[in-house]
Amino acid sequence: MSSNRKEKKVRAVPVGIGILIFILAFGVGVVSKFAIQPSWAKEYSVKWSDEVGTLKSDLPYGDGEANKFDLYLPKDDSKDSYGLVVYLHAGGFTSGDKVGDRDMLAWLCSKGYVAAGINYTLRTDDHPEASVLSQSNEIKAAIPIVIEAAEKAGYHIDKMTMAGGSAGHCLAMIYTYRDGAEAPVPVVFTFGAVGPSCFYQEDWGIYGLDQNDEACAGMFSVMAGEEITEQDIRDGSYHEKVKPISAMEWISSNPVPSVIAYGKCDKVQPYLGSLRLKAALEENNVDFRYYELPHSGHGLQNDNAIQREWMETVEEYLDKELS
Amino acid sequence: MSITAKRIIILVVIIAVAFCLGRLAVRAVMNMLLGGTLFGGNFL
């Protein structure tokens, strides 16, 4: 009896060590996913310094507290003209700041472009009136002032690119396709990732809006900045009301080259909407590249090889369209 | 094969499996959480 107990104890020790090692290795696996970034990602991220150029921060473009932009001016100021790249920050229209894109903007500046990060009034408790529409109109108002500021600093802008991530990508596409034809300089290219481009009830199943007219009317009203009723949802008249914030519907107005990336597992913006965008770009004969990341959600974090290809293409199009 | 060698092989397999599971767990959780919320989404 006592010998049996002793044997069990002897077996329990390696089992315990096995469990402990499993937990430790699991933890190391978790940490490694955050800590180890692909080496290629560093090529598209530059730490800002005076060696890169001159940074003018928080220049105003309107009366709102958030109506400010940062202008990144390249070191080489000897060229006759420069391409402008505007990169709009992410944050679900309710959070985020231009400072979050500093490394990206510094990278663009290091490539010789004038780069700008623009803040817009976020929908918060202090600004319940803010909507995608009001934000897109703020960006529209900001662009001439951004260009004017660059000109004043001695950098003549002759063309521009609009870009962004998530909410910023949504706003960048709205400006490009809806407002681009009226821009002070030609908008020759747009790139970005995971931005919603259209608002069809049946696409928004990730929020249950496809099954609930009331919830759909509520969410689309907030986004569109005007009242959309359940009846509008039922009879389809909401399509006209969301059109001003549906970049996809305006592609024909300014069908410029576009490089976009979307995650197939996205639970924040509908993947189905990205398929509509792709179809609309094809229909309008746009020179576009569409990257679908099959294992990734909104963060595009699980398909490194495709993400790398996407960024290489962005750089290729920047060189081709903006240089 | 000695018992010690067998135990070492088992431990190496456990480490490899646990490491991969740890990374896969992050992928799954990130796919659910990343990106914040859209208006009214009340997602996080």
Descriptive account of the structure:
The complex is a heterodimer of chains A (about 325) and B (about 45). With about 325 residues, chain A is α/β, with parallel strands linked by helices. Chain A has one domain (about 35-210, about 245-320): Alpha/Beta hydrolase fold, catalytic domain (Rossmann fold), CATH 3.40.50.1820. Helices cover about 40% and strands about 15% of the residues of chain A. Chain A has an 8-stranded mixed beta sheet, sandwiched between helices. The model of chain A has no long low-confidence stretch (mean pLDDT about 95). Chain B is built from 1 helix and no strands. The N and C termini of chain B lie far apart (about 50 Å). Chain B is about 70% helix and about 0% strand. The longest helix of chain B has about 30 residues, at about 5-35. Chain B has about 45 residues and is mainly α. The interface of A and B includes residues 91 and 218 of A.
Average pLDDT of chain A: 93
* Gross geometry of chain B: rod-shaped
Largest sheet of chain A, in brief, is: 8 strands, mixed
Q: What are the segments of chain B in which pLDDT stays under 50 over at least 5 consecutive residues?
A: 35-44
Query: What is the CA–CA distance across the termini of chain A?
Result: 84 Å
Query: How many strand elements of chain A?
Result: 8
Strand content of chain A: 15-25%
Strands of chain B, total number? 0
Helix/strand order of chain A: HEEEHEHEHEHHHEHEH
Ends apart, CA distance between termini of chain B: 52 Å
- What is the radius of gyration of chain B computed over CA atoms, rounded to a whole number of angstroms? 19 Å
Count of discrete structural domains of chain A: 1
Helical proportion of chain B? over 70%
Structural class assignment of chain A: alpha/beta
- CA radius of gyration of chain A is 24 Å
Helix content of chain A: 40-55%
What is the element string of chain B, with H for helices and E for strands? H
